[in-house]
Write a structure and sequence with these properties.
single chain; 404 residues; alpha/beta; Lyase, Ornithine Decarboxylase, Chain A, domain 1; TIM Barrel; 10-stranded mixed β-sheet; 8-stranded parallel β-barrel; 11 helices; elongated; binds pyridoxal-5'-phosphate
Amino acid sequence: MTENAGSRLYSGVMTPADRTWPPASAPVPTALATRIVDLSAIARNIRRIREHTGTGLMAVVKADGFGHGWLEVAHTALDAGAEWLGVATVDEALALRGAGVTAPVLCWLADPWTALADAVKQRVTISCANRETLEAVALAARDAGVTAQVHLELDTGMSRGGASEDEWLALCAAAAVLQAAGYLVATGLWSHLALAVDPDPSSTRVQREAFDRGVVVARAAGLAPATLHLANSAGALEHPDTWLDLVRCGASLYGIETVRGRTHGLEPAMRVVSRVTQLRRVQAGTGVSYGHAYVARRETTLVLVPVGYGDGIPRGLSSGGEVVIRGLRHPVVGAISMDQLVVDARDHPVALGDEVVLLGSPERGEPDAQEWADVTGTISHEILTGLGGRMVRRHINTDMKVTS
Ligand SMILES: Cc1ncc(COP(=O)(O)O)c(C=O)c1O
C-alpha cells in the first residue's frame, strides 16, 4: 500500500500510521485501558480546601482512595498538609501502618467482633458508637498493655451510624469510666452530615446544634475531647458552621465538586483512557451489539474500545455516554459488554490505536465522573470506586514530572 499518512482506507477510517496514541516514542502498553491518577491534582485540591476552611483536614482514603490508590493518596495528602487519614475498616488502617504511615488514622467501622489488638497497638484511633465496641477496644488495650484512643460518634440526623441522642449520655459515661481506668482516652467526638449537598444550610444547622448539645453532654460526663469533627466535603466547601477542628474530606480531594452549581476550582485527579482496537464502516440499518438496541441510521464508522462493565464502565452509559477521540466527542452506542464498547464516529477521522478518553477534564470538553453519574443515575463516588477490573493504574505527578 502506497498511501501517505493522511490517506484513508475507506471513508472516515484512517490507517494505523495516523494513530494519535500511544505516541510513537512510548512503549505500547499491554493493558487495554489505564486509570491515570495525577497526584499533584490531589495535592492542589487539598491545599485549596485547607486554605478555604483554615481547619485541620482528614483525608479520606478508604475504598482504595476512592479508586485512586490508598497509599499514593495518603502520602500525597500528608505531604500537602493533611493532619489525619480516615478509613472505614481496621484492615484499611492496618495497611497504612504496615506501609509505614505514622500519621493519625481514624477508622469508623470497627465492631465488637473485629480483631482490635493490632489496631490499638499501632495507635489507630477507633470510632465507637456503642458500649459494646467501646468495651472491646478497652479489652484489646488492656491485653496489649496500651491506652487506646477513641473518637465517639453521635448521630445528629444521618440515621446511619452513631449513638442516638438518647444513648449518648450512657456512651459518654461508659467512656469516662474506661478512661479513668486507663484503658482508653476519648480524644475526639464526631458526627456525619446527611444534607450538606443542599446549599440551603438549615438542615445542616440542625445537625450542628445537635452536635453542640452532644459536646456539652460529653464534657459534663467528664470527657475532654480535643478534636471535634462534623464536615464532609460538602460541609467543608459550603457550610462554615460545620468546620470545627477538622474537616473529613473524600470526594473533594479527588476533584468532585459535591454541591450542584457550585465550583471551588477542584481538579479531577483521574483520567481513564483506552485505545481504538477495531474499526468498521457499516451501512445504514446495521444493528450494534447485544440486542441491537442501537441501529445505525446512515452509513457510519463504528469504533471498538476494549473496556466494559467488567472494568467498572457502567452499562447505563450504553445510551447517553460519550467518549473523546482526537478532541471530538462521540456517542457510545449499543449495549456495553463485559469487555468492550462501541462508539459511533460517523465520518470523523479515526485510526487504529487512537487514544480514547473515557473520563477526563470537563475543562477540555471531556466527560468527568459527574457526567457519567448523571447519565446513569448515581453519584460520582460510585463511579470512581467502581472502576478497576483489568484496567491498570498509573500515578503521575505533573508538578514534579514523576510517574510510576
Ligand atoms: C464517615 C465519613 N466521613 C467522611 C466521608 C467523606 O465524605 P465526602 O466524600 O463526601 O467528602 C465519608 C465518605 O463517604 C464518610 O463515610
